[in-house]
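lol ok so funny story. i was supposed to be doing the assay writeup but got distracted and ended up predicting the structure for this chain instead. priorities right. anyway since i did it might as well share w the group, maybe its usefull for someone
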Amino acid sequence: MQAVRGPAIATAGLSIVAVLALTAGTSVVTGPGAAPLTVSRAGPEISWHPCALGPDDTEGRALDDAGVQCADVPVPLDYAKPHGRAVTVAIARSRGSDTVNRVGAMIINLGGPASPVLDSVPLARAAMGATGERFDLIGMDPRFAGRSTPVDCHWPAYWLPRSAGAGRAGFEAMVALGRDLAGRCGPTERELLRHASTANMARDMETVRIALGESKLSYLGYSQGSYLGAVYTQLFPGRAGRIVLDSAISPALSGTRVLRDAAPGRAAQLREWAGWAAGRDADYHLGTTADAVLSAVRRVYAISARRPLTVGSYAVDDTLLPALITTPLTDDTGNGELAEVVQLLVRAADGQPAEPTEEMAATLAGLVHGAGSATHTAQTAILCGDAAVSRDPEVYWRDIQRHRASSPLFEPLARTVTPCSFWPNAPVERPVQVRNGTPALIVQAEKDVNSQLPGARALHRALTGSRMIVLAGARTHGVYLFRGASCVDESVNAYLRSGRLPEADLTCAE
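and the output, tada:
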């Protein structure tokens, strides 16, 4: 499978205690102050069809060629009104060939939130090998994303991972951007957006389980998908099968607040990278010590705050520059790529021609030109729908100012104001409080800068029946199947085959 790059966004839950009540015809999920939320036990009938939607649908044709089946599963837009308006979630199924040792269906989620996943099903099938053949692998595009019922506010730019910058001007630019993006969602979009949340995605998973006729549902979720899996275990504890939560996030955070604690870890790993680059000064010419390399980064950041840097056709100011650093910092295999990015920024700061790398160009296209607007709309809607935030921009400014000195590059990125402060809908329900004894296997890279180790440990504590595998010394996002770490892959596969967790937590070396 291809690793998910870029800043990981994950939502988390705070304070709703969910109860599963089984009645003659329904599973009803309720919580303090919440309306009853119903998932029909009968479930919709699935009508499988070819994945290609037309002659130009190359993604669908590739799924068909891989023997994957597709379907559109109707789910309630509002689970408090289960017989009201329905939307669809798109699923794709690759049936396992090992029918003798069949375990059941496994949903795969790549985080985001709202990352489309259908085209990754054949990749997962190939990567999981014989272990995967015991499962019917299910890709489910989250509600409002990918091939599910779409929502798109037609955004001309995007806010994540933009920074509040080095001073008040950058912050005001983010306030204006957040207000503008939220205001572009009209009445049609708003009716859908108010029902975007991780809890509703978990309810959609349960609807799919019932429709598939499975007694339990196994799950493999990365990044924000780890939180989705944890919420599923909380809402539907008796239905959780074999659960793997990779690159996990803390369930004690909610919505955009998951971003707030990322700065210290990123700053530490940037310093470690700077030492790596200093040892290769003959190649990159950024300085012979870590301090010298970090000084080069600080210099281009300061210059970008005074005047935008010209990088190809883009004007890179201090709200954009941290994203260009953060993206390649995600994985230690991208050390050289990050060095090339800093080289380009140094040239641009010195007024020399600088053409972006392919990944830089992709990052900038999403931030500046709004490439992927539909996915970005759905992603933001889930973040905003998971928990309420302050609607006073000055709250964010004061928070940034209190923390800026500890990491001038990363704290304004982590604590910036977002469109959620101007969002047309308040969250419909309170966040799900995750705490249960469902067996689950948590997998984590020790130096992940996006979903960081303290958050994974918090999830481990919340899921009291879980075990945890830590890949020591690795800075990566997405470990199982992505990293090629045999100790991790073999341990996860052993659990998926047997259903038995390791006897104790493990630390793996590459």
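The two ends are 18 Å apart (CA to CA). Residues 2-36 have pLDDT under 50 and may be disordered.
back to the writeup now i swear
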